[in-house]
Design brief:
The chain is an alpha+beta fold and 178 residues long. Strands 1, 2, 3, 4, 5, 6 and 7 form a seven-stranded mixed sheet that branches. The longest helix is centred in the first third of the chain and has 32 residues. It is elongated, with a radius of gyration of 22 Å.
C-alpha cells in the first residue's frame, strides 16, 4: 500500500513538473514572439474610426462610451466632459494630456474634424484597445469631448474600458483647465 502511494506521488510530481515546464516555455515563447505579433493574428490593433452620431454599442461588455444624449444615439456610460474653451484649444489639450499616457500610441488625428484615435495596450499581455475621441463645439462656445473605448480581443474587459474613459476624461479636463 505504501509503495502504491509513493508511486502515485512520484507520478503526480512528474506531471506537475511537466506542466510547469510547458507553462514556462509558453510564457517564454509569448515574450520572444511579442504580444503585438501574437494579437495581430486576431486582426489589426486599430479598429478604425467611428461616427459617434450613429454608433451602435457592442452586445458584449467590452466597450465604454462618454457622450451627450443630443450627440450620440447610443447609451453613454458617463456624460462627456464639458470644457468652457473652444474646440481647437481643447483638441490641443487632449493631445497633450494623452501623450503622457504609458503604452498609448496615437494612430490618427484630424484637427479640422476634431477627431483623434489611439491604441492602448495592457501592461502585462499587451492586449490592444482602440480609443476614439471627438471634440465637438457646444452651444455656449465651449467644447465636449466624446470618448469611445473598445477592446479588440475578448468578450469582457473587467471594466478596463470604462475605467480608461473616466480616467482620460479627468486627464483631459485637468489639462484643458491649465
Amino acid at each position: 500500500m505504501r509503495a502504491v502511494r509513493k508511486a502515485k506521488s512520484s507520478a503526480m510530481r512528474r506531471i506537475l513538473n511537466i506542466a510547469a515546464l510547458l507553462a514556462a516555455l509558453s510564457i517564454a515563447a509569448f515574450l520572444i514572439v511579442g504580444p503585438e505579433r501574437i494579437w495581430a493574428q486576431f486582426g489589426a490593433a486599430d479598429l478604425g474610426d467611428v461616427d459617434f452620431a450613429t454608433l451602435v454599442r457592442r452586445d458584449s461588455p467590452n466597450d465604454a462610451l462618454a457622450c451627450l444624449p443630443d450627440v450620440c444615439a447610443a447609451k453613454a456610460d458617463i456624460a462627456a466632459p464639458l470644457i468652457a474653451k473652444p474646440p481647437a484649444t481643447v483638441f490641443a489639450a487632449v493631445e497633450t494630456a494623452l501623450s503622457r499616457e504609458p503604452r498609448v500610441q496615437e494612430v490618427a488625428a484630424d484637427a479640422a474634424q476634431g477627431t483623434l484615435r489611439f491604441v492602448e495596450r495592457s501592461r502585462l499581455l499587451g492586449f490592444p484597445d482602440t480609443v476614439n475621441l471627438k471634440v465637438v463645439p457646444t452651444p455656449d462656445g465651449g467644447s465636449a469631448v466624446l470618448i469611445y473605448s473598445r477592446s479588440q480581443i475578448g468578450r469582457d474587459d473587467m471594466g478596463v474600458n470604462l475605467a480608461r474613459v473616466k480616467r482620460w476624461a479627468e486627464l483631459i479636463e485637468a489639462e484643458a483647465g491649465r
